[in-house]
Amino acid sequence: MLMQQHTALATCGAASPPRAGRWVTALLALALVACGGGGDSGSALAFLPAGTPTSPATPPDSPTAPTTPATPQPFAIGGTVSGLKGSGLVLLNNGGDALPVSADGVFTFPTALAQGAPYAVSVQSQPGGPSQVCTVNAGTGTVADTAITGVMVVCATQAFTVNVTVSGLDGQGLVLQNNAGDDLAVSANGKRQFATRVAAGSAYAVTVKSQPRMYTQFCTVSQGSGTAAAADIDDVSVACATPATQSVYVSALLGSSVSLLTRYSGVDLSDPVSTIIPITFTSLAADPKGRLVFGGSDNGRVYAILQGNNTDSANPAAVGSSGTVTLGSHPSGDYLYAITGGDGFVTTYGVPPATPGTLNLLQQRVLYGANGTSVVPLAVDPLGRFVFVGISGQGLVMLPIRADGTLADSVWQGTPNVVSIAIHPSGACLYAIGTDGLLHTFSINASTGALTQTALTQASFGSGTPTSLAIDGRGRMLSLVDTANQLQYTRAITDAATGALGVPFAINGLPGPVATAFDPSRDGVNYLLDSLNLYRRTIDPVAGNYANTLFTSVTPSQIKAMVLLNR
Length: 567
Known about the structure:
By secondary structure, the protein is mainly beta. Strand 21 (245-254) and strand 22 form a beta hairpin.
């Protein structure tokens, strides 16, 4: 042992003479410190007492492997869709990741995005069938630490305007409808637009509610119905035509028992077609659509008069009760009104569009006071609002027309007894020849139909009472015939709003004139029937002149009625 310690000291170059005891131990420790054992060479010397244990040396730490960063969690991108009715909606996120959507509700894009990534939701394809426009709200931003669920896609169905191109209009009062409403009043040719737009996928149907008056015209709709797709409707057209008087019908009684119906050409009064019929027509009413004429008989029946090549046919279309029938047509041509003087029934018939000669009974009611009278004058408001009836001993009665064509309760007007009535084509006033020989002018309340007398003028120029009066198609003149005094006189209507009349212009020397009527579509063109001739003439009451353009002789007979059929 001592030899080994000595060897160590010698090795360090610090040899000492060997000593015994405790000095050996101290010298050994000093040698170790000097040689760098147990610490750095620059450390202070440390003397350990004998017997102090020593710890084994700690090995140096091993190198640490590099750490891989954690992958960030991706978050879903989505939201909700509302209002979707069509098909084909496709959404995009950041210009890609296409997502078709077929119904309202929650949507989520297929690809999730990491925290910090941007998102931008847009519409790639808008829905169709119906056409819709979908808009994105809260659709852009940056992903934080949670899924995106607040994107809102709101879809709205597109609505389109319905445009109508009108041509040929030369009258007043044309009213169009879309889908049986949304009235559109048209006063001039050109392109017009309904106020209410039609949603994509919804139907539209343009119809004529009121045909033009002043002139009377017939307007027809082309391309008027369909389904709104993805653009405004621009192909609807309305063409208006001014019809001419095609036929003049005259009902007469030959002798005491032979009833004759004669049809003349309205163009030149030529080629009369005469038909012997088993009944006598005391009233004639032309269908406003120009399809046929209705005859009111003296036996309580209504007949449809249909044109033939050599003769016309008179087929019973409806059966009343008894007495003389007076007729009036609704301006739409959809309804016919009849009153029978024998029992006082006032009846409303529906006129089917496909078979106008077959009438449908819609309503029948008693008009008290009308029974027992032989002739009951009747006139229908040109705007289709009211029916006016003159009843012996009670004057004029007004019956409002309901939406279905039937008549509401009658309202007595407190007027004198009348023998003939005519309504201005504007619907603003009514003229009536009274049994007192005076011409009464009344204003018509547009809402209630109530009459207010505004003027009272002379109607007769001698004994007797005028029997017929008529107003021209423009509402510019009124003409009446005075059978007893063998004259026709015409007065200009100077104010259509009030019905004010100018001075009378008389045509004298007519043998028994009984009926007058104006071509509703020609300025001042008048037809007059007396006991010997049928005339077509032009009248200018302001200038005070007239000119017969055509006339033809008629079979001497008792003239009962005349009516013009326009097409």
